[in-house]
Amino acid sequence: MSNPFAHEHAIIEPALRSYRDKLLGLPKQVEDKGGDLGPLTELDLFVDGELYKLVHDKFPEDGWISEESPRESGNGRYWIIDPIDGTREIVAGIPEWVVSVGLWENNRPLYGWLYNGPTDTVWHGGPGIGCWANDQDCTVANVDNLQDIVCGVSRTDIKKGRVPETDPAPEPIGSIAYKLGLVAAGTIHATVSVTPKNIWDIAGGIALVLGAGGTVIQFSDGKPMDHIEDIKALQEGGLVACHPDWAEELRKLYGA
């Protein structure tokens, strides 16, 4: 089928790739946001500023939600941005981070883009459309047995004792958006977040997983996340993303 967001993709993908050289240089300015919010670097602000200018030039009627700049209302469509999801990783030189871009309308995902600079990979796609890693088709992976599932979880959540001991044991991997990209690409089978997430952490990745034939549900209550009642609020329920066959099993395994 033709991609109804081919126009948007033709604008966003080359822009994301153009940031690569800048992103691959370790940040020189690092601030601590305080609490559990993690660091802020000049790289976050650079990407945020560049995407803001691009979106407002090409799609001036659309709204804007970003981790690093004020929200702006629009015509019902919102660009939801995390300039770098995984700033802790980028500061540490760990390649498990992405630039996350989600396009949503009426609280539903339309399309998403994740860009991983170290591999120069753009994951993109959306519900009912499909999912791609660069130009390669992506589909969520399935398994025959729960014991075979490779499930990525937050390093921070493991260190702070938030993730229960499970069998099979989870795999610590970088940012939540990066893990959602791996699920959509079939590189890992699942990701579980037992802690709340901001919409900019997950907007792009939700679109990708759904486009790849997967499901995304709240960890807390199993509610589908293909519609979020308030995209401007912290999503308190965590999430599970995987092949539809295993979502409820993983919720139980991780103690929901």
Describe, in short, the structure shown.
With 256 residues, the protein is an alpha+beta fold. It is 30% helix and 26% strand.
List strands and helices in order, with pairings.
Layout: H1 6-18, H2 20-24, E1 30-32, E2 39-41, H3 42-58, E3 63-66, E4 77-85, H4 87-92, E5 98-105, E6 108-116, E7 121-126, E8 130-133, E9 136-137, E10 151-154, H5 155-159, E11 171-173, H6 176-185, E12 190-193, H7 199-211, E13 215-217, E14 239-242, H8 247-253
Parallel strand pairs: 3-4, 10-11, 10-12
Antiparallel strand pairs: 1-2, 4-5, 5-6, 6-7, 7-8, 8-9, 12-14, 13-14
Tell me what you see in this structure.
With 256 residues, this protein is α+β, with helices and mostly antiparallel strands. Helices cover 30% and strands 26% of the residues. The strands form 3 sheets. Strands 3-4-5-6-7-8-9 form a 7-stranded mixed β-sheet, sandwiched between helices. The protein has a 5-stranded mixed β-sheet with strand order 11-10-12-14-13, sandwiched between helices. A two-stranded antiparallel ribbon has the order 1-2. The mean pLDDT is 95.
